[in-house]
Amino acid sequence: MYIAREASKVWRKVTTEISVEIQLLREKWGLLLAGLIFQYIHGLAARGVHYLHRPGPLLQDLGFMALPELGQEKGYLSESIFSSIFISFVLWTFHPFIYHSKRFYTVLIWRRVLAFLVASQFLRIVTFYSTQLPGPNYHCREGSNLATLPPPKSVLEVLLINFPRGVLFGCGDLIFSSHMIFTLVFVRTYQKYGSKRFIKFLAWFMAVIQSLLIIASRKHYSVDVVVAWYTVNLVVFFVDNKLPEMPDRTNGVPLLPLSTKEKDIWLKDEKDSKLKDEFHKLLNGNHGDPTDRRQRAQMNGRHDEDINHALSEATANGT
């Protein structure tokens, strides 16, 4: 019975949140769709620069000198770190559908994230088309069949971008690292809207580790990673200041008007939450409002003074 009751509460939260997010999506769908379309444009640009790539000797790189080369067989390490950051962030952005404590709306935070990504990726496209460097990755070096692409036979061949092979084995889109764009945007977003201090520290630590693994795997030059660190942080800073601030949901007030049924569900959940908080306060021995406690203490003090005064008068009359 307890499991069924809690499951019904979770389901009410999910359905209520879905209805609210759908209303937001109806209002903000244009910018979200534009951000998603630009992800395809970014992939198309990376595919296009591969046709221009010409392999050559590796450039002198301080990071290559300092970090030992991991080799092709350990190239999965940086991808594993990136995948864990990516999946964790996506799951975190959808936690308002389940958890009672909420700080943001999923639609609004993804609208913000896509704005950061689009601005950073636009600068990236302009940068790697300006100058094509010989790729340091193993499939981009001289002698590899994947280092250069033959001229496309049709426009469709370019538009399909040979996903996912064309994304995984691209060459020429170096400055600056796309993996670091996503990582830093996600970490900066959690830094602002997340609540767990340890996870914030862990996220920045993983971003640093990923940077080192990218260089050690020879997927990028050090300049690709370094430029990403200061460019993405500056982009997020300036774009974030231009965007309107998201409403804070910690006060429990819904952003959009709810239907009668949704309002009843929301009020019931709020009542259950307040009852739980009051129960924990009673267990901890700190129930009640501090103002009420001060008022009761003052009233008790006056009562004691009245009793002492009456006793002193009775003693005086008796003598």
From TrEMBL:
Compositionally biased region (Basic and acidic residues): 289-308
Alphabetically ordered keywords of this record: Lipid metabolism, Membrane, Sphingolipid metabolism, Transferase, Transmembrane, Transmembrane helix
Region named Disordered: 280-319
Classification via Pfam families: PAP2_C
Membrane-spanning residues: 29-49, 81-101, 113-131, 166-186, 198-215, 221-239
InterPro entries named in the record: Sphingomyelin_synth-like (IPR045221), Sphingomyelin_synth-like_dom (IPR025749)
GO BP, one annotated term: ceramide biosynthetic process
GO terms under cellular component: endoplasmic reticulum membrane; Golgi membrane; plasma membrane; trans-Golgi network
The organism's place on the tree of life at top rank: Eukaryota
Residue ranges annotated for the Sphingomyelin synthase-like domain, each copy included: 170-238
Subcellular location: Membrane
Membrane topology classification: Multi-pass membrane protein
Record carries keyword Protein transport: no
GO terms of molecular function: ceramide cholinephosphotransferase activity; inositol phosphoceramide synthase activity; sphingomyelin synthase activity
PANTHER family documented for this protein: OS05G0452900 PROTEIN, SPHINGOMYELIN SYNTHETASE
Family: Belongs to the sphingomyelin synthase family.
Protein's name according to its UniProt entry: Sphingomyelin synthase-like domain-containing protein
Record lineage: Eukaryota, Viridiplantae, Streptophyta, Embryophyta, Tracheophyta
